[in-house]
Amino acid sequence: MATRKMRLFSSISASFAVLFTLLNTGRCDEQVPLLLWTSEGTSLPSQTPPAAGHIVGRDQLDAYLHTALGSGPRNVLLFLQDKMSIEDFTIYGGAFGNKQDSAFRNLEGALLSSPSPLVLPAVSWPASNAVIGALQDQLETSPLYMDAETLGQLRLNSSSPALLVFRLPYGTGSDLMSAKEILSGNDEVIGQVLSIMKTQSVPYLAIYTALQPSQEAAAALSLEVGAGGGRSLLQARASHKEREQERERKRKVKEKAGVYGPVEFKKMELYQSKERENTCILLWATGLSVSILRGGRWDDHDLTPSTFGEGVTPKLHGSMCDQTKARLVLNYEDVLGHRNFKLIFAMSQRHYSVSARRWFTMDQVELEYDGTKATFNGSRSIYAPAEYSYRCDAVSSFRWPSLFPRSAKDPANQWRVSFEDFQIQGFNVSGQDFSYASDCAGFFTPGIWMGLMSSLLMVLVLTYGLHMIMQLRTMDRFDDPKGPAISVPLTE
Q1: Which of 7, 29, 191, 195 is deepest in the core (most CB within 10 A)?
Q2: Burial class (CB in 10 A: 0-12, 13-18, 19+), 39
Q3: Are the C-beta atoms of 231 and 225 separated by less than 8 Å?
Q4: CA-CA distances (angstroms) from residue 395 to 53, 185, 286, 376?
Q5: Is 320 helix (H, G, I), strand (E, B) or coil?
Q6: Distance (Å, rounded) from C-alpha 307 to C-alpha 283?
Q7: Cα separation of 104 and 186, whole Å?
Q8: Which pTM does this prediction carry?
Q9: SS3 of 316, please?
């Protein structure tokens, strides 16, 4: 057994080492590694890893996952790191013999103890971004964003599928030890989760990958081969072409279904001495409308055509986002007689000790017009876990209101706002898609209340009937037709 494990670990290390040697011959800023393993005593069909230097695309990754889920456990643990590259393993994983200083001790132990580990050193990061959707489709269940503390309170069942997603951070500073400390912390989280799963004795399939690479090569990187000769990096071109094909496919699907994309606010971030845009706020709705009370009647204005649709680019200047605050500002012109009009969504997130997790709330919805501000409070009704998005069929200030004027004297009392099929996310946005949605529908819907009241009425009628039956008394005297008649004194 020990010999078999040593051979397995040698093959895993060899896979990392082989790809590390390829860093001198191609770009690795388009790929992330993916590691897959199962719990002890659970084996999967043997899958051949890709050849050295081969990049696994989305279709091939779906095939790997389909094979693993076809006969493997239906409880999947997805450790999704923000950024990761193969260099993280070669630099911090003790690949050069310094195992006692490895940042992946728990991960290495899990791979060695698993009967069916699979290491994919190079997966195109558009494919790794779609791994949640692929697992969701194959398991036919929605992902649950968890942490180690919440997992300890959850009881899993091996007969029903579950997709548990654990988001892991990644960041680099001026000190190289900062990245190692973060990776070591992530490895400790993996170890805690695996320990909890071991105590529950539930078989599982674990996947460790990232949304995007952590190491970026220069954009104009090239290699000179021979005298005066050169070659382009076909690998980078292939990955870029794959991303373009994926974007085009999604666009055609949306056009065919008549669905438009959400409003995106992107902020500039400095990464590896480069500036790039990352989406941090998403908003989508089938209807945005505002109304103002004038002369005893409500004047309506539909903001939807100016916000969503093909070729529509809303003006978002004034918007901002960070780790705790988010503010989406939609700027319009000539709305209900106001030359400058703004619809503002102000959100915040913080940790709540009672639930032991972070939540985000829609603190306010503001209307700014010609120097006047109308403010609606929404924190009492519009909230969701920080990792989720918020969705509701109808958000309004007048019909089943979830938005309320800030005070009795606030100009908001002269306004009405209504959002139909509304969805928003201001934190933990990954790519251009919403996270799992927390719906506003409560448990006791009108239909459920009607059923409960009808059942209660029937129970009361049945109880009354049983009570009346129990009150019946039989006669204690009977008339004999052959004998004298019974005399019943009236005074008795």
Answers
A1: 29
A2: buried
A3: yes
A4: 51, 40, 12, 12
A5: strand
A6: 10
A7: 9
A8: 0.45
A9: coil
